[in-house]
RNA sequence: GGUCACGUGGCCGAGCGGUUAGGCAGAGGUCUGCAAAACCUUGUACAGCGGUUCGAAUCCGCUCGUGACCUCCA
């Protein structure tokens, strides 16, 4: 843990702060997961990868991390008139499915996409629908505190009253008076005392199929409640890091804080982290805007905006090339540039494996390089800088293998350990192998073919050697002639 | 309308008071039977206008432009 010196930009203070966990050596991490009513799109990949990076770096540094990422499968309304339809239920009705069938279907598909992106599984993945009892309990606590009120079987959070003693808007920088003046009047809000009040429990209409009994009515919990309840249940009343997309800052995360403070008296989160959005032609990519591209569409190249298909690793690297708090604009050019850069990095990783020490003293300072890498990741997970340093290492690796740079035994080991740790363990990149079953056979065949080609070259039979290379090229196998023999790769 | 961000070379994208970001593309070279790869060299950018400063992409003000949130959203 000696290289670990992380500072995190805390949305709460709008400053970078040194990361000091509540319990030394441990970290409780909660991230808002998907609402499972549709396939994951590029926008979903960003928080998943951002907080996967954080999770990986903490684990790499020796932390014991409990990572909780929820599945929202109830209570998330189509619009916030608060009598809107539940997203899951709507999808279920459209497709004539049992709601939990929809939930399971999209949860499975989400998991598959995450695996493709090499996003590690969280330690706990709770479902909102599995925590109705706890949610009812928290509503009772908030009612007991006098900060919620019941109307016709529904329970609302009394924002104005809460704001008398606490600051509603502290996370997102809102002022309640402004909110009261600027919040649009929506239909179905006549039950609320103030338009800023939000639902904790909603009485279900007659055709509402997802419903649970409660002291107030047969109904369902409000969306903001699940995260308050599940984070408290699994991480405690005060935990270290809460992450999510910037668009969730208000009202979702603001409401979470209010609910926790109202129910337990505790400020729940020490560090709030928010990733920025992915844009497409400068505009936010989102389900409601209809301009999103599903991850599967990327993998298959099936979308009118895509020139061709892109691998999951390509997308992962593309996302890591930008800082998580900067907006990132999608384009085919940017994706293809990222792909080439990533290949360069992974090729270097491969040649690093075969590298031999070639001197007693190294001509470059590997320890200084390693320190720069840690400095970058420690600085609020600055992956673009980290990647720039990794490209420095690529240059060194290639120079060593060409004999233009000297490296000692111990420095080579340091370079190898550090490079691999960052590329594979922390950034979570992986070589995309086809199916490993056939690989051994392919390797054998390729060795044979290249040997035959080498013989032809020795005999200056350029016709044969070029024909072999061209034919392989047609099969997307690229042959490179190096100093000590030829190598090949599938493009 | 309110609140808050942002505007960097052909493209993507860091930096946020003084010294090369990096990647992709481009140009020249080395190597090679040729090719590819690799390596070396190369570009001198920070929306505009003012101001602060010995010195500003970097701080302040104004103007223009873009976006986010204020309603479900990763």
Word description of this protein:
The protein is of the alpha/beta class and 491 residues long. 46% of the residues lie in helices and 14% in strands. It contains 16 helices and 15 strands. Strands 4-3-9-10 form a four-stranded parallel beta sheet, sandwiched between helices. Helix 8 (249-264) links the parallel strand 9 (239-245) and strand 10 (269-275). Helix 1 crosses helix 10, helix 4 (132-144) crosses helix 8 and helix 7 crosses helix 8. The longest helix has 23 residues, at 332-354. The chain is elongated and about 90 Å long. The relative contact order is 0.11. The structure holds one RNA strand of 74 nucleotides.
Question: Helix and strand layout, with pairings?
Answer:
Blueprint: E1 7-10, E2 15-18, E3 26-31, H1 42-60, E4 64-69, H2 87-95, H3 99-116, H4 132-144, E5 148-151, E6 154-157, H5 159-165, H6 176-182, E7 198-203, E8 219-221, H7 223-235, E9 239-245, H8 249-264, E10 269-275, E11 278-280, E12 283-284, H9 295-300, H10 312-320, E13 328-330, H11 332-354, H12 366-378, H13 383-401, H14 409-426, H15 436-458, H16 462-474, E14 477-482, E15 485-490
Parallel strand pairs: 3-4, 3-9, 9-10, 11-13
Antiparallel strand pairs: 1-2, 5-6, 6-7, 7-8, 11-12, 14-15
Helix pairs in contact: 1-10, 2-3, 4-7, 4-8, 7-8, 10-11, 11-13, 11-14, 12-13, 12-14, 15-16
This protein binds one RNA strand of 74 nucleotides through helix 1, helix 6, helix 8, strand 12 and helix 11.
Summarize this structure briefly.
This protein is an alpha/beta fold and 491 residues long. 46% of the residues lie in helices and 14% in strands. The mean pLDDT is 89.
